[in-house]
Amino acid sequence: MAAARVLRGGCCCHRRLLSSAAGSRPTAERGERQDSAGLGFSPPAHSRNDWIGPPDKHSNLRPVIFYVPPEESPLERRLREARQEAQAFDQRFWARHNRAFRQEKEEFIYSRLKAKGLEMRDETGQKATLNAEEMADFYKDFLSKNFRKHMQYNRDWYKRNFTITFLMGQVALARALRWLRWKKKNVGN
Question: Where are the beta strands (DSSP E) in the chain?
């Protein structure tokens, strides 16, 4: 499996990269990199590895720019596209989930402070907070309310990752057989 390089810094606007996995844009051609426009980083053209970027500010996930080998087989392409689709699925889910979490958390804090007769900011301008016990109520309620979403996400995640693992096994077997055929052919010469 190709090693991944971690990039630092840069902007993380993933919509263009991740939407390609959903079919709205064509994926990279053989021997090319998928489009990294909008991500704020781009691997060098000579790199033969997947590249991992900085965390997205909405989902907290790191985007991956997948290397597309010039001689990519149809099976290897299926594996890469399954990985891209899984990345896009995770990106969408966690961006929506984190946005809902932040919004509901702010609403919870505002309602609790209002019930206590307090403002969002104290007299020094500092943002008012709730204690850990009060926040524990919010976390418990949020997790309970989103239990079905998390269960469905976990089911989908396992399905996608079992598919990816199965495809990785097929690719490894195909590569091993290709290598054995090459070795047999070259040993005989």
Answer: 4-6, 50-52, 64-65
- Residue 147: strand, helix, or coil: helix
How confident is the model at residue 36, as a pLDDT?
55
Q: Which residue is listed with tokens 């990199």? A: 33
Task: Compute the residue count for the chain.
Answer: 189
Tokens matching residue 88: 């896009």
- SS3 category, 154: helix
Q: pLDDT tens-digit profile of 47-60? A: 889 999 999 999 99
**CB-CB neighbours of 61 under 10 Å:** 19
61: which residues sit within 8 A by CB, 6+ positions away? Answer: 55, 87, 90, 91, 94
Q: Which residues of 88-97 are buried (b: 16+ CB within 10 A; e: fewer)?
A: bbbbbbbbeb
Contact in structure between 101 and 109 (CB atoms under 8 Å): no
